[in-house]
């Protein structure tokens, strides 16, 4: 799970080098191209009205003229912070209008954690848990509708194309909930080391799949899989029963949090492979 003992150690999230993280990943053709996301992307801090208040978020889109598909990016349990801003820039540089919201806007503006955070420290963990409790399936569904409407209202958004949603850690379930809340808009869903995608509870995210109309990319951490090796197979069955295309895979040797720069378990090689898979999904589903 993404907000309990599966998290490992220290997370240090300074302002990541924009050039380093803005480098384009190896293209799907296998040819590496280099570009600074800062040179080609507009970044704005925005506020979005929701049924529960005003959410703070970061918006990114290409400087180039034209219209682009929209993507909602749900961050991990530590919410909107520099590393996820860098992800937003990088994705926008690839040709998307990207919104990264603060998960905890109901109680605190981002960043909710500053500097280093140690999941092994009970005092650090105690800072997050009350905020984590404010994120509910019902609230997420309302937020998702508001966020997609906001993205669709941007002049840079190509509303003729479907939208995507991706999530990290607890953002994985939020991505499923988004696809169910706005099924007419979401055509691609990606989850990276998502926790709690399939549970025995009546509100398990996987039970929402029949309400959705998307293609799925489910990237599972090695230690998450070892904790419950049956989840991946049950997810595959759920996708098949819902008649939804899905790529479900375990990243061997890559532990929970491996895609997020600054994490103690960050694995650059595996993170880049996951990013390439993401771009392939969006290219196929969003155009």
UniProtKB/TrEMBL annotation:
| Gene Ontology molecular function | hydrolase activity
Q: Tell me the Gene3D superfamilies matching this sequence.
A: alpha/beta hydrolase
Q: Which residues form the signal peptide?
A: none
Q: Is tRNA-binding given among the entry's keywords? A: no
Ranges for domain Dienelactone hydrolase come to: 56-285
The reply to whether Phosphoprotein figures as a keyword in the UniProt entry is no
Q: Which UniProt keywords apply?
A: Hydrolase
- According to UniProt, the name of this protein is Dienelactone hydrolase family protein
Question: Which organism does this record belong to?
Answer: Caulobacter segnis
